[in-house]
Design a protein that fits this description.
187 residues, mainly alpha, 50s Ribosomal Protein L17, Chain: A, 11% strand, elongated
Length: 187
């Protein structure tokens, strides 16, 4: 019997399971809809609804708690500002799960986990680009940043390397004779 075991282990160790659920929630908040297996969707729903409850409070402690699970400042701001306001009048039930049936490869039960109140596709795409690129391309164009242009070399002749004057290799016997001559001359 499973007395006191509240966590579905999903066949993973603790660290791996936490990383999986964090990544699922991160993707859910970016795309507002993800496709995964049914047990993963049920566990990710628990964490996502917990984070939305904190986002509704929208204070510093709540932001820090969300940041513990999703370590991305821009995404935490989006969760608190956008999703916190969107679900302010709801008392729970922020996500829904659609069952899709078994996966062809291994027969795992598949599901779609999505937020109940969705935004339009352009807002989702803008949010995705903001998170992935860390800055919006439109704001870069407005700033008028100049890109550096590499100057090409304008020379008709091919580049030549300077040749080092290498002395001819000296044979072992001659080298020692030269040293002996120099010693005699110094005396």
């Amino acid at each position: 019997m499973r007395h006191g075991n509240r966590v579905k282990k999903l066949g993973r160790k603790k660290e791996h399971r936490h990383a999986l659920l964090r990544n699922l929630c991160r993707s859910l908040f970016i795309f507002e809809r993800i496709r995964t297996t049914l047990p993963k969707a049920k566990e990710a729903r628990r964490l996502a609804e917990h984070l939305i409850e904190f986002a509704k409070k929208n204070n510093l402690a709540a932001r820090r708690t969300i940041y513990r699970f999703i370590p991305d400042h821009k995404l935490v701001n989006i969760i608190c500002d956008e999703f916190g306001q969107r679900f302010a009048d709801r008392q729970g039930g922020y996500t829904r799960i659609y069952r899709l049936g078994p996966r062809l490869g291994d027969g795992a039960e598949m599901a779609i986990l999505e937020l109940v109140e969705k935004s339009d596709a352009s807002a989702i795409d803008l949010r995705r680009r903001l998170i992935e690129r860390r800055t919006l391309p439109e704001t870069q164009a407005k700033k008028g940043r100049k890109t550096k242009v590499k100057k090409e070399k304008k020379s008709d002749e091919p580049t030549r390397r300077k040749k080092k004057n290498k002395e001819a290799p000296v044979e072992k016997g001659k080298k020692s004779k030269n040293k002996e001559k120099k010693r005699k001359e110094k005396k």
